[in-house]
Amino acid sequence: MVDLEHETCTCQRWRVYGFPCAHALAAIRKIKREAIDFISPYFTSDYFRKTYMHAIQPIPNYNRPVEYHPDDTVNPPTVKKQPGIPPGKRIISKHEKKVKRKVHCSNCKETGHNKAGCRNPRKFTPH
User: Fold this and answer.
1) Which of 55, 96, 105, 126 has the highest CB neighbour count under 10 A?
2) How far apart are CA 49 and CA 39, in angstroms?
């Protein structure tokens, strides 16, 4: 239910966000009015300009010392390697493309298989 007079809707989005929801927009179109007439003036550019019309002065910080010495700074702690097994590779999202590299056989130097799956006779290389 949409009440254009009180600017409410049963979904409560109009009350929460300050501008008409989809249900209210359908009702506004039905009576052939403009949606801008039902939007809160808070969202207009005039309100924005009035907000920043005056200069905003910085707030004085009385807790900060007047003088600054580099020796007074606190550096972050040194990070040590944590014990245990390091985390594995991250899980790739379904939208990311896996890059497959071509496999080369160290026996026959052809692509598409490795030494374990090679059907060519093994070449013996003396050391």
Assistant:
1) 105
2) 17
For residue range 34-56, list pLDDT tens digits in order: 888 888 888 888 988 888 888 87
DSSP three-state, residue 28: helix
Q: What is the DSSP letter of 81?
A: P
**Largest Cα span, the chain:** 94
Residue with tokens 């052939």: 32
Query: How far is 41 from 64, CA to CA, in rounded Å?
Result: 40
Place of tokens 């702690």: 77
Please give the C-alpha separations between residue 28 and each of 10, 35, 38, 46, 62, in angstroms, as whole numbers. Answer: 15, 6, 9, 24, 54
Nearest 10 degrees: Cα torsion 109, 112, 116, 120: -60
The encoded tokens of residue 24 equal 């209210």
C-alpha angle with apex 23: 27 to 20, nearest 5 degrees? 85
Residue in the structure block whose two tokens are 């009015």: 33
- Global pTM? 0.39
Query: Rounded to the nearest 5°, which phi and psi values hold at 8?
Result: -135, 155
